[in-house]
Automatic annotation (TrEMBL):
It is an enzyme of class 3 (hydrolase). Residues 103-266 form the Protein-arginine deiminase (PAD) central domain. Residues 277-656 form the Protein-arginine deiminase C-terminal domain. This is protein-arginine deiminase. It is found in: Cytoplasm. One of its GO terms (molecular function) is calcium ion binding. Belongs to the protein arginine deiminase family. It comes from Salarias fasciatus.
Length: 659
């Protein structure tokens, strides 16, 4: 007679245990029979008839006994199974007895994305997009719960319980005897391959007598520097909570997926490593960073105060107040003379079933506003992320006036419910040219949910897409219109003015630093016409790209009258707006803060303003023209360049996208 002990694992309800019947059989064994306690159940493979179970069963080379237990054990070795072996004459030759301990083990997450950690979801070990998808979600813990400015995930301890709401709850559920059999242990682990491309932290909640010590209550047990750790097995029915935080967004070398494993290790013998006899796993995805388009509701407007922008600030304050939104001013001690709020940061957010908060992306331009996002925005439930680039690789196209996002669109049947990111780069065939630095492009592409579109913007001196395009809300069609700068529309307007007898009306009337220029003089300037023919061809190329990539037709586009001029810069000829660029506007719902163009006046009203209003007001939009000539336009920017808006997030949940 041989006797041994074993452990039967149950995930959720039960998991079968397999053994070869022949392996423990005495020589000359030809038949066998099985006896067991009430909570054990078994089957034989290959299957036998019911009659075979009532008498000794033929023993073959491939006979396998499959057994399980109906419920978890209350005590160690409280169940057993025995196999009797018989010879040819069915005389008993020996008995093998296996003493069994059943343990129920399940590593659980919110795999169905309803905000509740359900028990043993069958889909917890994989991740699927879509409304019928599954798989849990982790947030990058990139806000700061503390008075001092430091990202929460940069610390290996918790000192505020409020930080837990930014983490994903994972539960180890166990049921069984008071302790595991001698030598058995539970370990949580990640693979070496994952550790080379992902980083995350797991904190285990413990019951400490000193409840004031959060470091002892939530010790860090697993991180990239430590691939495995033993975890506590608790007696009876127990739920052991863990808190998982991401510390890195998806990127070129990381698809955002994380696998966490829990294994039960079995002792073999002295000096021999334990063997895993069971592994449960969960797969989670780190939430992407998501941008917000002009069509979403504004929450806060940001501008800078400088020594020379009093008029602009006064008009912006009035416009924002009229629009019913909150204005936040970054003062000179913080902006250090850098007024380009749009270029420094891009507001977005991260989302999960259990938590959502805004996250600001800090550009690598690092000028006067370099400290603003970290010092003034980062805080509780307000995250921060940046991508570092080599200083010599950073150029004007890395400022975030060159980073926009469309409203939701459908393109050839493919839905983009969160819109598409838009960036500006050099023309695809250009041997030399400025491009957005690769680390930023890689980051944007890796987020997946707002697939980027690259436009040609290097033809502009500053090189930003917001110099020739924007989006405004509309009550019909796609719910928005694409506005494009159009020299053709500008010349059409000026020719119409000349034909109506207003050829002597002047551009720049009332601007102290500019010489007024009559409409007819502009129309007769052949060099300026050549400049604008070139600009129009560049915009037309982008127009075709936007129509194709956003699924638009001509009815979705409005052309605004803007002229440009070419200047030589670093041996390259590039374009600037000839007068304030009315496309570079601040969009607050139906209220538009538009650069005042100082166009030719007809009957006391600026003809460019009148034309813009005639194009936009039928959509229910209200146009307010803001004087930014001296403080922004002459410094090569406009209203949008000098402002920024944090908006409400989408109602649509990114994990429901069809990929």
């Amino acid at each position: 007679t041989t006797s041994n002990t074993g452990i039967v694992l149950t995930t959720g309800y039960r998991l079968s245990f397999v053994c070869s019947v022949l392996r423990s059989a005495p020589p000359c064994s030809k038949f066998f029979s099985v006896k067991h306690t009430a909570d054990v159940q078994y089957s034989i493979n290959p299957p036998r008839s019911e009659a075979d179970h009532l008498s000794p069963i033929p023993l073959n080379d491939d006979t396998v006994l499959l057994f399980s237990m109906k419920k978890a054990s209350e005590e160690e070795n409280d169940n057993k199974l025995s196999v009797r072996y018989y010879g040819t004459d069915k005389k008993m030759l020996g008995t093998a007895v296996l003493h069994l301990t059943a343990v129920e083990i399940s590593l659980d997450v919110d795999a169905d994305r309803d905000g509740i950690v359900e028990k043993n979801n069958p889909n917890k070990g994989c991740w699927k997009w879509g409304p019928d998808g599954h798989g849990a979600i982790i947030l990058v813990n990139c806000d700061s719960e503390r008075r001092w400015r430091k990202l929460d995930h940069e610390q290996d301890f918790i000192d505020r319980e409020s930080d837990l709401k930014d983490m994903t709850t994972m539960v180890l559920r166990t049921k069984g005897p008071a302790k595991l059999p001698e030598g058995y242990k539970l370990t949580m682990h990640i693979s070496q391959g994952d550790a080379e491309s992902i980083r995350f932290e797991i904190l285990q909640q413990t019951k400490q007598a000193d409840q004031d010590s959060l470091r002892s209550k939530y010790p860090l047990i697993l991180q990239s520097a430590c691939l495995s750790a033993e975890v506590l097995y608790r007696r009876g029915f127990a739920e052991n909570k863990f808190y998982v935080e991401g510390i890195r967004f998806p990127d070129k070398d990381f698809d955002g997926l994380v696998t966490i494993n829990l294994s039960l290790l079995e002792p073999i013998g002295p000096g021999i490593p334990e063997t895993p006899i069971f592994t449960d796993k969960v797969v989670l995805r780190i939430a992407p960073w998501i941008m917000t388009p002009n069509t979403l509701t504004p929450k806060e407007v940001f501008v800078c105060s400088t020594t020379d922008n009093y008029t602009f600030l006064k008009e912006i304050r009035s416009f924002v107040a009229k629009s019913g939104h909150n204005l936040k001013i970054c003062h000179e001690y913080m902006n250090r003379g850098d007024r380009w709020m749009q270029d420094e940061v891009e507001f977005g957010y991260i989302d999960s079933p259990h938590q959502r908060f805004p996250v600001v992306l800090d550009s690598p331009r690092d000028r006067g506003l370099v400290d603003f996002p970290y010092e003034k925005l980062l805080g509780p439930d307000f995250g921060y992320v940046t991508k570092k680039a080599q200083k010599e690789d950073v150029n004007s196209l890395d400022s975030f006036g060159n980073l926009e996002v469309s409203p939701p669109v459908t393109v050839n049947g493919k839905k983009y419910p969160l819109g598409r990111i838009i960036i500006g780069v050099a023309f695809p065939t250009a041997a030399q040219g400025r491009n957005m630095t690769q680390v930023i492009q890689d980051f944007l592409w890796a987020q997946k949910v707002q697939e980027p579109i690259a436009l040609f913007s290097d033809w502009l001196c500053i090189g930003h897409v917001d110099e020739f395009m924007t989006f405004v809300p509309a009550p019909d069609k796609n719910g928005f219109r694409l506005l494009l700068a159009s020299p053709d529309a500008g010349y059409k307007l000026f020719k119409s003015l000349s034909k109506q007898g207003h050829g002597n009306a002047t551009l720049f009337d009332g601007v102290e630093t500019e010489t007024p220029r009559p409409v007819d003089d502009i129309l007769n300037d052949e060099e300026l016409q050549d400049h604008n023919n070139y600009v129009q061809s560049c915009i037309d190329w982008n127009r075709d790209v936007l129509k194709r990539e956003l699924g638009l037709d001509e009815g979705d586009i409005i052309d605004l009258p803007i002229l440009f001029k070419l200047v030589k810069e670093d041996e390259e000829v590039r374009a600037l707006a000839y007068y304030p660029d009315v496309v570079n506007m601040l969009v607050l719902g139906k209220n538009l803060g538009i650069p005042k163009p100082f166009g030719p006046k007809v009957n006391g009203r600026c003809a460019i303003e009148a034309e813009v209003c005639s194009l936009l007001e039928p959509l229910g939009l209200s146009c307010t023209f803001i004087d930014n000539f001296a403080s922004y336009h002459q410094l090569l920017g406009e209203v949008h360049c000098g402002s920024n808006v944090r908006r409400e997030p989408f109602d649509f949940k990114w994990w429901n996208m069809e990929m």
